[in-house]
């Protein structure tokens, strides 16, 4: 339909399809080559996070053919885009909010690493956030993308670069997810519309405040064990809150108060927030640990040092409210695998 609308408007259109979930470097380079042949003035990316993220990365290599992927992964180090084309994003899933963010996540399958490309240059020029496009999402995708949106908002509210501008967006997104995610999962159309708006607000929050180690961990686990990104976020979020609470329990308590959860102290309110997230995972049929998800113990043990090392290097780790080293990251991964308590 989008292709037809553009042609009816008198535009010359070339379609690039076949972007896989967790798009690869190879797909990005193939798409960039197609762009160089067609020479578009506008790039219109439609779909979930994967095709839009892939198109953002293709855009870089379309404008700068000699640029390398190794150069592109340097945070906020891209040359000026829009020399050849501008960018429109039209999301059809309610989670990544890539239509309003400065990020694109691309996987190097040879290295088994997911790289978040981060630069305000790749923030789309136009975002068309039409809730109607999200109405056909299957329930599992609603669950995973919804928990991705919740994680975006909670991490933005506690990130080291949070501000008075990002906080209201994050809190409003959290309130909307709390009210609508389970209803959306159960098929409520109004709730699904509101989730599409909530995820966009969460994206606006984290594109300004940045994220934290839930995302660092999810990126690296996704590349090795292929756990869907939103599902990994949902599993890791309660554990990371327990880790971070030593330095920002007051922020988690703020969230709990906004949601009218039980508790008289910051500690009690944070406990209530953790309980709520675990209840979400129950309601959405999301497991509480990587072991419960189905990751084999031998696979986990043979890869944990590798994923812990790469998680420390992830662009999202720098904005975590609590610092973490490689050894502690490994311990945290072990908690998320076995479902054990975080007491360090």
UniProtKB/TrEMBL annotation:
Residues 143-334 form the Fe-containing alcohol dehydrogenase-like C-terminal domain. Signal peptide: none annotated. PANTHER family: ALCOHOL DEHYDROGENASE, HYDROXYACID-OXOACID TRANSHYDROGENASE, MITOCHONDRIAL. CDD domains: NADPH_BDH. The keyword Oxidoreductase applies. InterPro entries: ADH_Fe/GldA (IPR001670), ADH_Fe_C (IPR056798), ADH_Fe_CS (IPR018211), Alcohol_dehydrogenase_Fe (IPR039697), NADPH_BDH (IPR034802). Gene3D superfamilies: 3.40.50.1970, Dehydroquinate synthase-like - alpha domain. One of its GO terms (molecular function) is alcohol dehydrogenase (NAD+) activity. Pfam families: ADH_Fe_C (PF25137), Fe-ADH (PF00465). This is Butanol dehydrogenase. Keywords: Oxidoreductase. It comes from the Bacteria. Residues 1-131 form the Alcohol dehydrogenase iron-type/glycerol dehydrogenase GldA domain. It comes from Clostridium butyricum.
């Amino acid at each position: 339909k989008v292709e037809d609308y553009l042609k009816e408007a008198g535009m010359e259109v070339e379609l690039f399809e076949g972007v896989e979930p967790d798009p690869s470097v190879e797909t990005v380079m193939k798409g960039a080559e197609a762009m160089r042949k067609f020479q578009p003035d506008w790039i219109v990316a439609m779909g979930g996070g994967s095709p839009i993220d892939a198109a953002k990365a293709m855009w870089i290599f379309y404008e700068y053919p000699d640029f390398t992927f190794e150069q592109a992964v340097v945070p906020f180090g891209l040359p000026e885009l829009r020399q050849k084309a501008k960018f429109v994003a039209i999301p059809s899933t309610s989670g990544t909010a890539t239509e309003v963010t400065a990020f694109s996540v691309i996987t190097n399958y040879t290295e088994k690493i997911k790289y978040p490309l981060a630069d305000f240059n790749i923030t789309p020029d136009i975002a068309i956030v039409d809730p109607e496009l999200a109405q056909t999402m299957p329930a599992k995708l609603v669950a995973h993308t919804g928990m991705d949106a919740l994680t975006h908002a909670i991490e933005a509210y506690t990130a080291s670069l949070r501000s008075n501008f990002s906080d209201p967006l994050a809190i409003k997104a959290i309130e909307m997810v709390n009210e609508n995610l389970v209803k959306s999962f159960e098929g409520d159309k109004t709730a699904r519309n509101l989730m599409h708006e909530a995820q966009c607000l969460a994206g606006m929050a984290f594109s300004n405040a940045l994220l934290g180690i839930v995302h660092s961990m999810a990126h690296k686990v996704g590349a090795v064990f292929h756990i869907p990104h939103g599902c990994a976020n949902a599993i890791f979020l309660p554990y990371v809150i327990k880790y971070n609470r030593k330095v920002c329990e007051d922020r988690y308590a703020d969230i709990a108060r906004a949601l009218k959860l039980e508790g008289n102290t910051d500690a009690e309110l944070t406990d209530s927030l953790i309980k709520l997230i675990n209840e979400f995972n129950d309601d959405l049929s999301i497991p509480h640990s990587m072991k419960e998800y189905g990751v084999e113990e031998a696979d986990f043990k043979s890869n944990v040092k590798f994923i812990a090392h790469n998680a420390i290097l992830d662009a999202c780790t720098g904005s975590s409210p609590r610092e973490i080293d490689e050894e502690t990251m490994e311990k945290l991964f072990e908690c998320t695998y076995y479902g054990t308590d975080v007491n360090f």
